[in-house]
Amino acid sequence: MRRIGHLVIIGVAVSIALATIPLRSARADESSGSKPDSSGDPPSAKAKKGSEYRRLLDELDAERKRVDELEREVKMIEGSNAKLEQTTSNLQTSNQQLATQLSQTQNQMGGFQKIVATQLGPQGFGDRINSFLGSHTFTLAGTVSTGYYYSRQGNHNSPTLDFELYPLLRFNDWLQFYGNLTVGLSPGFGGEAAVFAGVANLQIFPFGQEAPFELVAGIFDKPFNDYWEDQPINFVSPFVTTPLPYGPEAFVPPSSVGLQARGGYQWGQPGQDWDYTTWIDSGPTFESAVGTLPAPVIGEGVNPLTGVNLSTKGIAVGGRLRFYPLPVDWDWGRAELYASTYDGKWMDGLWYESWGVGASYRVGPFRTRAEWLQSYRQMGSGPTGMPDYPGCCGHDNRQGWFAQVGYFLYGIPHPYLGDWLEPRFNKLEFSVRYSGVNQRAIVTNDITTSPVFGFSGSPSVFYPHAREVAFGLDYWISPKIVWKNEFDLELPRTGGTFYTFANGAGTPTASAVGSTTNDFSLETQLTVQF
Asked: Which of 34, 476, 503, 468 is nearest to 238 (CA)?
């Protein structure tokens, strides 16, 4: 501001000085009585003086314009300062109003607290609610899946429905409850809704949730290998059906009643971990088709968890070890190696043992998984000394495997699809799986062609040497909504024995498995997670 005022004063002074120069010159000429042209100067000097005079006039005009521009800028700055002062004043007023309102609110809250404390007391309803909400947390999640299954050989086109709820109740830092309530509707359930609890257990953290140790007591997913726990077919698995070793010819039951201990440790960089799980439960049981099989005969199908498992007085122990070799900083994806064993007694005193190994790997749009399983089961004998079936003579042993790969199509370059097609193309995932089982014999009375959730109803999966190639195409509408489509080629091989009990006969009819019939099936399923 001072600089601008100085410039204004200097400009005015220069203007006055320049304006007086020609006036003094004219007066001097008049006092001497001579005319300007009679000064005696030569014409060149006169021209030079005229040019200098015009130059001074131009400079004076430029200075006047500069002074006018500076005056306008000064006025603009003064106006901005006035607005800034007004805004500052408004903010100060608002701050004072907010401070007053905050003080009033605090006073009201203090009054409410006094009312609650005086009217409800230390044992009142308010204190109990605060205590409960302070230590309990309830979470409810779930999935609903609906679809249609078709099998050419089974000659059916049937709808299925699976509705599951997952309640999680956290009591405190060391105890919480987790459950799974399932409602299923499909032809395999006789056209009626079946309701059952797949999982219901207490999760106990005796040293706190930060410690690498946990106890699980109750009904839990069998932690054998990594499939039952981590690959539910309604959402996580890219396929609608299970691989053959986990299907109708399952080697181990999907769930157990018992107690398990688990924990894990980081052995290297972040991402390089290992974890363990050990458990003890009531042991497996195998299906006996009531009304069609003699009482001593036990079929090949693993029983779901029922009271039969508890009444047989069997007991089994198991363990699993998982290893993660790749650190996160390498950006090489996530790799997992695991091995499991499950051994014990079934049907009171008959021995049973199984083991399996597997691996999984995922990086970017690519994921893969593979497992190998094997089991041995001692077969008893009936009251007449006749051995149970399948296998007939001593033992039932099985081998099974599956390998699958999947790829999200966003990993494929596609620069020419256009704005409408490209985002939809990116939501597609293509998968292929090969699975198989080997076993000595099948009790044909246990074969069913009624589809249930996760099983197409194709009878070809019951062959002693069943093989299946499954193709999956999933469309992820959103991270919690997926539309799955699967096409299965059932390619059973020759070998093994069929045992058939006719009209409850005590002795079955045995027939060698010769030429086999291939089958194909289609499944489509929409799953929503909430």
From this structure: 476
